[in-house]
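Q: I'm building a small set of examples for a reading group on sequence design. Run inverse folding on the following structure and report the sequence directly after it, with nothing in between.
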């Protein structure tokens, strides 16, 4: 006999000597055939599958990380500028050409993070003949009218009924930390300003 015939004879002998009932032998044979068939299918599919690259590049929309800021007052080029998200007030001032000589930015927090749609206003130089040491007095004596809550100094807030130096400085500090007021009603968020006090000067405010 050749080698294949010998192996087949050995398998036949082993099968006949198994101490299983005919039913058990048929079940064993079925399981063996199923395992061999499944193995063949798995091997065939594994060889034919395409290798998919999971490193899909992520596209970032640049427009989603930009903001627009209006820079006005004492800057070289007032206007609306587009800046990257995370930019600070100083970046907006630089984009507008920087503050012009004599402009006063002392009441602005240049390190504050910008918000989309806000306005940065830098006070332009005083008129000729007015010394720098008298700026505060000049501002306080400007013609009466609505007070711009996002531009007014502490002295200008003090001119309002019911607001003293402490509360005026608290308003300016809140504005520097949190950014411009969206409406005059936002002053109610400042500690020390309640509805009754706010009613005393609300009509004299504007954004």
């Amino acid at each position: 006999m050749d080698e294949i015939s010998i192996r087949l004879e050995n398998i036949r002998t082993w099968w006949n000597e198994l101490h299983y009932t005919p039913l058990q032998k048929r079940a064993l044979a079925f399981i063996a055939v199923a395992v061999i068939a499944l193995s063949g299918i798995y091997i065939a599919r594994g060889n034919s599958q395409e290798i998919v690259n999971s490193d899909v590049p992520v596209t970032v929309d640049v427009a989603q990380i930009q903001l627009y800021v209006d820079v006005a007052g004492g800057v070289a080029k007032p206007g609306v500028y587009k800046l990257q998200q995370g930019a600070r007030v100083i970046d907006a001032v630089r984009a507008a050409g920087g503050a012009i000589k004599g402009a006063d930015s002392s009441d602005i927090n240049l390190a504050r993070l910008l918000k989309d749609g806000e306005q940065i206003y830098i006070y332009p130089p005083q008129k000729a003949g007015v010394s720098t040491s008298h700026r505060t007095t000049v501002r306080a004596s400007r013609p009466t009218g609505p007070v711009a809550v996002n531009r007014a100094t502490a002295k200008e807030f003090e001119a309002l009924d019911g607001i003293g130096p402490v509360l005026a400085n608290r308003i300016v500090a809140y504005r520097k930390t949190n950014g411009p007021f969206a409406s005059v009603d936002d002053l109610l968020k400042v500690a020390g300003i309640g509805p009754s006090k706010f009613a005393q000067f609300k009509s004299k405010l504007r954004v």
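The longest strand covers residues 66-73.
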